[in-house]
Amino acid sequence: MRSPALETARELLRAWPVIDAHCDTLLKVSQAGRGHFSTGLPGTHVDLPRLEEAGVTAQFFACYVEPQYLPHRALERALELVDHFYGEVEYAAGRLLPVTGHAGVLEAYGEGKVAGILSIEGGEVLQGDLAVLRALHRLGVRSLTLTWNFRNALADGVAEARTGGGLTRFGVEVVREMGRLGMLVDVSHLSEAGFWHVLEEAPGAVVASHSNARSVCDHPRNLTDDQIRALAAKGGVMGLNLCPALLTREADKVGPDGRSVGATLADALDHVDHVVSLVGPEHLGLGMDYDGIVHTPVGLEDVSKLPFLVSGMLERGHSPEIVRGILGGNLLGVMREVGMA
Known about the structure:
By secondary structure, the protein is α/β, with parallel strands linked by helices. 43% of the residues lie in helices and 12% in strands. The protein contains 14 helices and 9 strands.
Protein backbone atom coordinates (compact mmCIF):
# COMPACT_ATOMS: atom_id res chain seq x y z
CA MET A 1 0.00 0.00 0.00
CA ARG A 2 1.40 3.36 -1.01
CA SER A 3 1.68 6.13 1.59
CA PRO A 4 -0.23 9.28 0.56
CA ALA A 5 2.37 11.39 2.40
CA LEU A 6 5.21 9.72 0.50
CA GLU A 7 3.48 10.34 -2.83
CA THR A 8 2.96 14.01 -1.87
CA ALA A 9 6.62 14.18 -0.81
CA ARG A 10 7.80 12.97 -4.20
CA GLU A 11 5.58 15.55 -5.89
CA LEU A 12 6.98 18.35 -3.70
CA LEU A 13 10.53 17.32 -4.53
CA ARG A 14 9.73 17.87 -8.21
CA ALA A 15 7.56 20.96 -7.83
CA TRP A 16 10.14 23.34 -6.33
CA PRO A 17 13.93 23.77 -6.31
CA VAL A 18 15.48 21.62 -3.59
CA ILE A 19 18.80 22.78 -2.10
CA ASP A 20 21.18 20.95 0.23
CA ALA A 21 23.65 23.31 1.89
CA HIS A 22 26.42 20.84 2.72
CA CYS A 23 28.00 17.58 1.63
CA ASP A 24 31.61 16.35 1.70
CA THR A 25 31.36 14.23 -1.43
CA LEU A 26 34.26 15.95 -3.19
CA LEU A 27 36.59 14.06 -0.83
CA LYS A 28 35.11 10.79 -2.11
CA VAL A 29 35.37 12.03 -5.69
CA SER A 30 39.05 12.79 -5.20
CA GLN A 31 39.62 9.19 -4.08
CA ALA A 32 37.48 7.48 -6.71
CA GLY A 33 38.80 9.16 -9.83
CA ARG A 34 37.06 11.07 -12.56
CA GLY A 35 33.69 10.03 -13.87
CA HIS A 36 32.40 7.88 -11.03
CA PHE A 37 30.30 10.69 -9.57
CA SER A 38 28.20 10.73 -12.75
CA THR A 39 27.73 6.97 -12.94
CA GLY A 40 27.61 6.04 -9.26
CA LEU A 41 29.94 6.18 -6.25
CA PRO A 42 29.62 2.93 -4.26
CA GLY A 43 30.07 3.28 -0.53
CA THR A 44 29.03 6.93 -0.49
CA HIS A 45 25.88 8.88 0.33
CA VAL A 46 25.74 11.18 -2.70
CA ASP A 47 26.32 10.90 -6.44
CA LEU A 48 24.67 12.38 -9.49
CA PRO A 49 22.21 9.52 -10.15
CA ARG A 50 20.95 9.64 -6.57
CA LEU A 51 20.66 13.44 -6.56
CA GLU A 52 18.55 13.13 -9.70
CA GLU A 53 16.49 10.33 -8.17
CA ALA A 54 15.84 12.32 -4.99
CA GLY A 55 14.89 15.50 -6.86
CA VAL A 56 17.71 17.65 -5.48
CA THR A 57 18.11 20.76 -7.64
CA ALA A 58 21.21 22.27 -6.05
CA GLN A 59 23.98 20.75 -3.98
CA PHE A 60 26.62 22.75 -2.14
CA PHE A 61 29.89 20.83 -2.45
CA ALA A 62 32.24 21.57 0.43
CA CYS A 63 35.99 21.66 -0.10
CA TYR A 64 37.06 20.33 3.29
CA VAL A 65 40.82 20.19 3.73
CA GLU A 66 41.98 17.19 5.72
CA PRO A 67 44.28 17.80 8.73
CA GLN A 68 47.37 16.37 7.01
CA TYR A 69 47.33 19.31 4.60
CA LEU A 70 47.20 21.98 7.32
CA PRO A 71 48.39 24.63 7.42
CA HIS A 72 50.81 25.10 4.55
CA ARG A 73 49.13 22.96 1.87
CA ALA A 74 45.54 23.98 2.64
CA LEU A 75 45.11 26.18 -0.42
CA GLU A 76 46.76 23.62 -2.68
CA ARG A 77 44.40 20.89 -1.49
CA ALA A 78 41.34 23.14 -1.82
CA LEU A 79 42.29 23.92 -5.41
CA GLU A 80 42.64 20.20 -6.11
CA LEU A 81 39.07 19.68 -4.87
CA VAL A 82 37.81 22.60 -6.96
CA ASP A 83 39.49 20.99 -9.96
CA HIS A 84 37.80 17.65 -9.19
CA PHE A 85 34.45 19.44 -9.14
CA TYR A 86 34.95 20.99 -12.56
CA GLY A 87 36.25 17.69 -13.90
CA GLU A 88 32.99 16.04 -12.87
CA VAL A 89 31.03 18.88 -14.47
CA GLU A 90 32.78 18.17 -17.77
CA TYR A 91 32.27 14.41 -17.50
CA ALA A 92 28.58 14.80 -16.66
CA ALA A 93 28.01 16.36 -20.08
CA GLY A 94 25.31 18.81 -19.10
CA ARG A 95 23.65 16.91 -16.25
CA LEU A 96 25.61 18.85 -13.60
CA LEU A 97 25.74 22.65 -13.92
CA PRO A 98 28.20 24.82 -11.98
CA VAL A 99 26.21 27.77 -10.63
CA THR A 100 27.04 30.70 -8.37
CA GLY A 101 23.71 32.08 -7.24
CA HIS A 102 19.94 31.91 -7.02
CA ALA A 103 19.43 32.61 -10.73
CA GLY A 104 21.60 29.62 -11.64
CA VAL A 105 19.63 27.39 -9.28
CA LEU A 106 16.37 28.43 -10.91
CA GLU A 107 17.88 27.89 -14.36
CA ALA A 108 19.00 24.37 -13.43
CA TYR A 109 15.55 23.62 -12.03
CA GLY A 110 13.88 24.82 -15.22
CA GLU A 111 16.15 22.59 -17.29
CA GLY A 112 15.74 19.55 -15.04
CA LYS A 113 19.44 19.47 -14.17
CA VAL A 114 21.45 19.41 -10.94
CA ALA A 115 23.24 22.61 -9.92
CA GLY A 116 26.57 22.37 -8.14
CA ILE A 117 27.75 25.21 -5.88
CA LEU A 118 31.25 25.31 -4.41
CA SER A 119 31.93 26.08 -0.76
CA ILE A 120 35.05 26.04 1.40
CA GLU A 121 35.05 24.46 4.87
CA GLY A 122 37.76 26.09 6.95
CA GLY A 123 39.43 29.49 6.65
CA GLU A 124 42.92 27.94 6.67
CA VAL A 125 42.51 27.83 2.90
CA LEU A 126 42.77 31.62 2.72
CA GLN A 127 46.39 31.57 3.95
CA GLY A 128 45.78 34.88 5.73
CA ASP A 129 45.20 36.80 2.51
CA LEU A 130 41.97 38.44 1.28
CA ALA A 131 43.31 38.14 -2.27
CA VAL A 132 42.88 34.36 -1.97
CA LEU A 133 39.24 34.85 -0.97
CA ARG A 134 38.67 37.00 -4.03
CA ALA A 135 40.44 34.49 -6.28
CA LEU A 136 38.32 31.63 -4.94
CA HIS A 137 35.23 33.74 -5.57
CA ARG A 138 36.32 34.10 -9.21
CA LEU A 139 36.63 30.29 -9.37
CA GLY A 140 32.99 29.97 -8.33
CA VAL A 141 33.24 29.54 -4.55
CA ARG A 142 30.23 31.19 -2.94
CA SER A 143 30.26 30.07 0.69
CA LEU A 144 32.89 29.81 3.43
CA THR A 145 32.53 27.90 6.69
CA LEU A 146 34.88 30.11 8.71
CA THR A 147 36.33 27.33 10.86
CA TRP A 148 36.14 23.62 11.30
CA ASN A 149 36.27 22.57 14.97
CA PHE A 150 39.63 24.14 15.74
CA ARG A 151 41.31 27.53 15.80
CA ASN A 152 42.56 29.20 12.63
CA ALA A 153 43.54 32.71 11.57
CA LEU A 154 39.88 33.79 11.39
CA ALA A 155 38.37 32.53 14.63
CA ASP A 156 38.08 29.70 17.14
CA GLY A 157 36.07 26.58 16.33
CA VAL A 158 33.76 24.83 18.79
CA ALA A 159 36.60 22.67 20.16
CA GLU A 160 38.35 25.88 21.30
CA ALA A 161 35.28 27.41 22.95
CA ARG A 162 36.97 27.51 26.39
CA THR A 163 39.05 30.49 25.18
CA GLY A 164 35.97 32.66 24.70
CA GLY A 165 37.55 33.99 21.51
CA GLY A 166 35.54 35.57 18.72
CA LEU A 167 36.74 36.70 15.32
CA THR A 168 40.31 37.83 14.83
CA ARG A 169 41.02 41.07 12.99
CA PHE A 170 41.53 39.03 9.84
CA GLY A 171 38.28 37.20 10.51
CA VAL A 172 36.42 40.50 10.66
CA GLU A 173 38.00 41.53 7.37
CA VAL A 174 36.97 38.23 5.78
CA VAL A 175 33.35 38.52 6.94
CA ARG A 176 33.09 42.07 5.64
CA GLU A 177 34.72 41.18 2.31
CA MET A 178 32.38 38.21 1.90
CA GLY A 179 29.48 40.61 2.36
CA ARG A 180 30.87 42.84 -0.36
CA LEU A 181 31.37 39.88 -2.72
CA GLY A 182 27.93 38.40 -2.10
CA MET A 183 29.10 35.20 -0.40
CA LEU A 184 27.37 33.14 2.27
CA VAL A 185 29.03 33.42 5.68
CA ASP A 186 28.66 30.03 7.35
CA VAL A 187 28.82 29.81 11.17
CA SER A 188 28.61 26.01 11.52
CA HIS A 189 31.58 24.67 13.54
CA LEU A 190 32.27 28.15 14.94
CA SER A 191 32.69 28.78 18.67
CA GLU A 192 29.78 30.46 20.38
CA ALA A 193 31.74 33.68 20.90
CA GLY A 194 32.64 33.65 17.23
CA PHE A 195 28.98 33.12 16.30
CA TRP A 196 27.92 36.27 18.16
CA HIS A 197 30.81 38.25 16.72
CA VAL A 198 29.85 37.25 13.18
CA LEU A 199 26.29 38.44 13.73
CA GLU A 200 27.68 41.82 14.78
CA GLU A 201 29.98 42.17 11.78
CA ALA A 202 28.12 40.52 8.89
CA PRO A 203 26.28 43.09 6.75
CA GLY A 204 23.50 40.64 5.87
CA ALA A 205 22.01 37.25 6.67
CA VAL A 206 24.30 34.37 7.57
CA VAL A 207 23.76 30.61 7.54
CA ALA A 208 24.58 27.67 9.77
CA SER A 209 24.82 25.28 6.86
CA HIS A 210 24.86 22.02 8.83
CA SER A 211 23.87 22.41 12.49
CA ASN A 212 21.02 21.29 14.73
CA ALA A 213 19.22 22.40 17.91
CA ARG A 214 21.15 21.97 21.16
CA SER A 215 18.00 21.89 23.27
CA VAL A 216 16.97 18.72 21.41
CA CYS A 217 20.47 17.19 21.41
CA ASP A 218 23.03 18.70 23.78
CA HIS A 219 26.09 18.68 21.52
CA PRO A 220 28.56 21.60 21.21
CA ARG A 221 28.18 21.59 17.40
CA ASN A 222 24.49 22.40 17.76
CA LEU A 223 23.02 25.88 18.24
CA THR A 224 21.34 27.03 21.43
CA ASP A 225 17.82 28.43 21.26
CA ASP A 226 19.26 31.93 21.73
CA GLN A 227 21.58 31.39 18.78
CA ILE A 228 18.76 30.09 16.60
CA ARG A 229 16.61 33.08 17.51
CA ALA A 230 19.47 35.46 16.68
CA LEU A 231 20.21 33.71 13.40
CA ALA A 232 16.53 34.05 12.49
CA ALA A 233 16.43 37.72 13.51
CA LYS A 234 19.36 38.29 11.13
CA GLY A 235 17.32 36.66 8.36
CA GLY A 236 19.46 33.52 8.29
CA VAL A 237 18.83 29.81 7.82
CA MET A 238 20.02 26.72 9.69
CA GLY A 239 20.54 23.56 7.64
CA LEU A 240 19.32 20.30 9.20
CA ASN A 241 22.31 17.99 9.79
CA LEU A 242 21.82 14.21 9.68
CA CYS A 243 24.91 13.33 11.73
CA PRO A 244 23.57 10.89 14.37
CA ALA A 245 25.60 12.43 17.21
CA LEU A 246 24.01 15.81 16.43
CA LEU A 247 20.51 14.34 16.31
CA THR A 248 20.33 12.39 19.57
CA ARG A 249 22.44 11.66 22.62
CA GLU A 250 21.40 8.05 22.10
CA ALA A 251 23.15 7.82 18.75
CA ASP A 252 24.99 4.69 19.92
CA LYS A 253 21.90 2.86 21.18
CA VAL A 254 21.40 -0.80 20.27
CA GLY A 255 18.32 -2.81 19.43
CA PRO A 256 17.05 -6.02 21.05
CA ASP A 257 19.32 -8.08 18.84
CA GLY A 258 22.36 -6.17 20.06
CA ARG A 259 22.91 -4.40 16.74
CA SER A 260 23.37 -0.64 16.63
CA VAL A 261 20.32 1.24 15.41
CA GLY A 262 21.80 4.74 15.85
CA ALA A 263 19.68 7.77 15.17
CA THR A 264 16.39 7.53 13.30
CA LEU A 265 14.23 9.57 10.98
CA ALA A 266 12.13 10.50 14.01
CA ASP A 267 15.15 12.10 15.66
CA ALA A 268 15.71 14.32 12.62
CA LEU A 269 12.04 15.30 12.63
CA ASP A 270 12.29 16.29 16.31
CA HIS A 271 14.81 18.98 15.30
CA VAL A 272 12.53 20.16 12.50
CA ASP A 273 9.61 20.46 14.91
CA HIS A 274 11.67 22.37 17.45
CA VAL A 275 13.12 24.95 15.08
CA VAL A 276 9.76 25.56 13.40
CA SER A 277 8.05 26.06 16.77
CA LEU A 278 10.88 28.30 18.02
CA VAL A 279 11.39 30.73 15.13
CA GLY A 280 8.97 29.71 12.42
CA PRO A 281 9.58 27.61 9.31
CA GLU A 282 11.32 30.36 7.33
CA HIS A 283 14.69 29.79 9.01
CA LEU A 284 15.24 26.09 8.43
CA GLY A 285 16.73 24.32 5.44
CA LEU A 286 18.71 21.21 4.57
CA GLY A 287 22.41 20.74 5.31
CA MET A 288 22.52 16.99 5.50
CA ASP A 289 26.31 16.52 5.80
CA TYR A 290 26.28 13.37 3.68
CA ASP A 291 29.73 11.88 3.05
CA GLY A 292 31.03 13.96 5.94
CA ILE A 293 29.43 11.56 8.42
CA VAL A 294 30.34 7.91 8.92
CA HIS A 295 26.93 6.67 10.03
CA THR A 296 23.49 7.86 8.95
CA PRO A 297 20.09 7.80 10.64
CA VAL A 298 18.06 4.66 10.08
CA GLY A 299 15.75 5.40 7.16
CA LEU A 300 17.97 8.16 5.75
CA GLU A 301 20.92 6.10 4.59
CA ASP A 302 21.74 8.29 1.58
CA VAL A 303 20.35 11.21 -0.39
CA SER A 304 17.92 8.98 -2.32
CA LYS A 305 15.98 8.59 0.96
CA LEU A 306 15.09 12.29 1.04
CA PRO A 307 11.41 11.59 0.17
CA PHE A 308 11.06 9.80 3.52
CA LEU A 309 12.28 12.88 5.41
CA VAL A 310 9.78 15.00 3.49
CA SER A 311 6.90 12.59 4.07
CA GLY A 312 7.80 12.56 7.77
CA MET A 313 7.46 16.35 7.90
CA LEU A 314 4.05 16.13 6.24
CA GLU A 315 2.91 13.39 8.60
CA ARG A 316 3.86 15.58 11.56
CA GLY A 317 1.53 18.29 10.34
CA HIS A 318 3.85 20.61 8.45
CA SER A 319 2.02 21.98 5.43
CA PRO A 320 3.33 21.57 1.88
CA GLU A 321 4.07 25.32 1.85
CA ILE A 322 6.21 25.02 4.98
CA VAL A 323 8.00 21.95 3.65
CA ARG A 324 8.67 23.67 0.34
CA GLY A 325 10.49 26.46 2.17
CA ILE A 326 12.59 23.99 4.18
CA LEU A 327 13.49 22.07 1.03
CA GLY A 328 14.97 25.09 -0.69
CA GLY A 329 12.84 28.21 -0.70
CA ASN A 330 14.29 29.58 2.53
CA LEU A 331 17.91 29.16 1.49
CA LEU A 332 17.15 30.49 -1.98
CA GLY A 333 15.82 33.64 -0.32
CA VAL A 334 19.03 34.12 1.67
CA MET A 335 21.11 33.61 -1.47
CA ARG A 336 19.10 36.32 -3.18
CA GLU A 337 19.30 38.69 -0.19
CA VAL A 338 23.10 38.54 0.17
CA GLY A 339 23.55 39.11 -3.54
CA MET A 340 24.89 35.65 -4.30
CA ALA A 341 25.12 35.81 -8.07
